[in-house]
């Protein structure tokens, strides 16, 4: 299998602590990305095939328009740079990109906030977050298309990430516009991938379809087709919701996007201030949540997923099985009036997390959610916890203050073992000997 040639790819300087695509694209936010055997992630997005690769210093990217789509991922996406050598490297990287791909990447991955600062803020307010987050840095909340996000999470009902992804790909292959194909050494995942025998290696041709519009899913026969594709009861929800949204858009164009947080607008639109943030959530978030509940297949969790990942309301806290487990294990839920996940308990968990983490509570919660996924269980090295006393001090009042260091090993995205040190102080009464 050939090596990946990144020499002619565009690149954006960014650390893994600010963005880690290998975690962000696997943690159940978006379901259309494909990763090939060379570590390249690809998706059809905004009338192009967008491909990404990341190392410790750069996010490499290329944008392939439909007319270019039958080229290998190893091939250069654009002609060599014609910029003069005296131009600074970072400026060359941005100016060489003649289309809006860099703007799309910055918007889609929500790169404006400083993630290191946010992690520090959440850690300062929550000891549990401080313990778990260091092994899961670089997770960002995507700014996705609201309609795609809605349908994806309708598919998530009683489902897992792998099966949701399979459903979404089937939906796109059946009803979405074909943007093009890529030849790459990806292991076939469905019947739409065609094997091609080459002289030196085996390749596959993978079609890339963009997401179908509500109108495309409103035509007769959609429900039955989706049932035939294995969607089960979700087929009716998707077909009915598509008709509802299409009807709303006849009256209010882009109806779903009118529910967006003005601080997180669609691509190409400038942000504007939102309402002040109260612990219960801003009025715009509450209105969006209520509006989504009027659609088929949308309960509180799906509505919060769409509010958070499709409409930009950072305070939305989706509570599913994983988050309920976290709330019981780490935040003292599961007892008394919150013994079961009722609506009252659901709302109480959201309020608790908003009080801890503020208006980006949903973002912080998604990091703990990711840490709770089985797919990332290998990230933390089990049995690698050590403790030691580093200092004892007598405060002169018959008490002794002890400082202990707890070291935990974990594996980062580059599969390097790192050690996290957490210092704890304990004060105890000093034992006195009898004379």
Describe this structure in words.
This protein has 435 residues and is an alpha+beta fold. It has helices spanning 21-24, 89-95, 101-108, 115-125, 127-132, 146-154, 161-175, 222-228, 234-251, 283-292, 300-309, 321-330, 343-357, 361-371; strands at 10-13, 34-35, 41-44, 49-54, 58-64, 178-184, 194-197, 202-209, 380-394, 399-411, 417-429. The chain has a five-stranded antiparallel β-sheet. The chain has a three-stranded antiparallel β-sheet with strand order 6-8-7. Strands 9-10-11 form a three-stranded antiparallel β-sheet, with no helix packed on it. Helix 6 packs antiparallel against helix 11 (300-309) and helix 8 packs antiparallel against helix 9. The relative contact order is 0.12. Residues 69-97 and 412-432 have low confidence and may be disordered.
Number of strands: 11
- Tell me about the biggest sheet? 5 strands, antiparallel
Structural class: alpha+beta
What are the low-pLDDT stretches, counting only 5+ consecutive residues below 50? 69-97, 412-432
Rg measurement, Å:
24 Å
């Amino acid at each position: 299998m050939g090596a990946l040639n990144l020499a002619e790819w565009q690149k954006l300087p960014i650390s893994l602590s600010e963005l880690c695509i290998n975690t962000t694209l696997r943690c159940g936010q978006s379901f259309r990305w494909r990763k090939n055997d060379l570590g390249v992630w690809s998706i059809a997005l905004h009338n192009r095939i967008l491909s990404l690769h990341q190392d410790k210093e750069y996010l490499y990217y290329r944008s392939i328009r439909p007319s270019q789509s039958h080229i290998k991922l190893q091939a250069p996406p654009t002609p060599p740079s014609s910029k003069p050598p005296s131009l600074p490297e970072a400026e060359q990287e941005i100016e060489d990109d003649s289309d809006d791909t860099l703007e799309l990447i910055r918007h889609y991955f929500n790169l404006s906030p400083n993630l290191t600062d946010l992690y520090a803020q959440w850690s300062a307010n929550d000891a549990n977050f401080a313990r778990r987050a260091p092994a899961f840095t670089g997770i960002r909340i995507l700014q996705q298309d609201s309609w795609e996000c809605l349908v994806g999470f309708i598919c998530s009902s009683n489902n897992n990430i792998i099966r949701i992804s399979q459903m979404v790909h089937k939906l796109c292959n059946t009803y979405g516009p074909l943007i093009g194909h890529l030849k790459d050494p990806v292991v076939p995942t469905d019947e739409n991938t065609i094997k091609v025998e080459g002289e030196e290696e085996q390749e596959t041709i993978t079609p890339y379809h963009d997401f179908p519009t509500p109108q495309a899913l409103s035509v007769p026969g959609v429900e039955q087709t989706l049932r035939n594709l294995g969607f089960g009861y979700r087929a009716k929800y998707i077909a009915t919701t598509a008709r509802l949204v299409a009807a709303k858009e006849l009256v209010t164009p882009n109806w779903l996007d009118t529910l967006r947080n003005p601080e997180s607008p669609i691509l190409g639109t400038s942000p504007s201030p939102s309402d002040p943030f109260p612990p219960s959530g801003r009025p715009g978030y509450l209105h969006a949540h209520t509006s989504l509940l009027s659609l088929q297949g949308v309960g509180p969790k799906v509505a919060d997923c769409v509010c958070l990942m499709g409409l930009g309301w950072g305070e939305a806290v989706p509570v599913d099985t994983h988050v309920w487990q976290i709330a019981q294990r780490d935040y003292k839920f599961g007892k008394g009036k919150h013994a079961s996940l009722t609506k009252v308990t659901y709302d109480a968990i959201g309020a608790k997390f908003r009080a801890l983490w503020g208006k980006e509570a949903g973002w912080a919660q998604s990091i703990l959610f990711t840490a709770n996924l089985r797919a990332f269980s290998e990230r933390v090295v089990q049995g690698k916890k050590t403790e030691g006393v580093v200092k004892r001090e007598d405060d002169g009042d018959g008490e002794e203050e002890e400082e202990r260091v707890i070291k935990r090993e974990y594996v980062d995205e580059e599969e390097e073992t790192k050690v996290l040190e957490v210092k704890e102080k304990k004060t105890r009464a000093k034992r006195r000997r009898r004379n």
